[in-house]
TrEMBL record:
Membrane-spanning segments: 25-42, 48-65
Single GO molecular function: peptidyl-tRNA hydrolase activity
Name listed for the protein in its UniProt record: peptidyl-tRNA hydrolase
Organism superkingdom: Eukaryota
UniProt source species: Spongospora subterranea
NCBIfam families according to UniProt: arch_pth2, PRK04322.1
Keywords: Hydrolase, Membrane, Transmembrane, Transmembrane helix
Catalytic activity field: an N-acyl-L-alpha-aminoacyl-tRNA + H2O = an N-acyl-L-amino acid + a tRNA + H(+)
GO cellular-component term (any): cytosol
Listed EC numbers: 3.1.1.29
InterPro entries: Pep_tRNA_hydro_II_dom_sf, PTH2
Family (UniProt): Belongs to the PTH2 family.
Length: 204
């Protein structure tokens, strides 16, 4: 299963960057041809014109070769990174404040808000982690924290480790005061990283 995802991820990323490289290369080639033809029309018999065409062609060939080589290397690096991300299990951890004494329905709603908020943020900031998380079923666990202070301490640790976080601030329509920080999502990120920060917390 993992090897299949490796192949799929590598092909998709390589194809995407190859298409970009092809478009840019085609544009550069067309521009060079237009310049060369324009110079030739002005005075084809002039030795200086012929020399200019030769120089333009040489410069174009040199930079085109370097561009294609660099694009291929970048595509391979990105494809390899995505494949590595997809081979590692990712998860999201939801931290629910115990001191607010929210009902089960309220907790479920707040966890949903946290999940969606973290997902939207991670799509922008950590897209590779989102891909990996979706690949392995979007795993989530819910744990409890004693109060807001403990939640913020975990938040600081997660952000220091480069993990996405999202804190829900409730509107205060039911059960809690307006602006209460009810649930925090940690991740999606590599399971080992999330566990290293949240394993001491009890399951909800």
């Amino acid at each position: 299963m993992q090897s299949q995802w490796h192949m799929y991820s590598s092909r998709r990323c390589s194809s995407r960057y190859q298409n970009t490289s092809t478009k840019k290369s085609r544009f550069a080639a067309e521009l060079t041809v237009i310049i060369a033809v324009g110079i030739a029309i002005m005075d084809w018999g002039n030795p200086g014109v012929l020399a200019s065409i030769g120089i333009c062609s040489a410069i174009f060939g040199f930079y085109l070769g370097r561009f294609q080589q660099g694009s291929a290397m970048n595509a391979l690096k990105i494809a390899g990174n995505v494949a590595r991300q997809r081979s590692v299990r990712h998860q999201m951890c939801l931290l629910v404040r115990k001191d607010l004494k929210m009902g089960k329905g309220k907790q479920a709603a707040q966890c949903a808000h946290a999940t969606l908020g973290a997902y939207r943020r991670a799509v922008r900031l950590y897209p590779e982690a989102v891909w990996a998380w979706e690949t392995f079923g979007q795993a989530k666990i819910a744990v409890q924290v004693e109060n807001e202070q403990e939640m913020m301490e975990v938040k600081a640790q997660a952000e220091a480790a480069g993990i996405c976080t999202y804190v829900v601030e409730d509107a205060g329509r039911t059960q809690v005061e307006p602006g209460s920080r009810t649930v925090m999502a940690v991740g999606p990120a590599e399971k080992t990283l999330v566990d290293s920060i949240t394993r001491h917390l009890k399951l909800l």
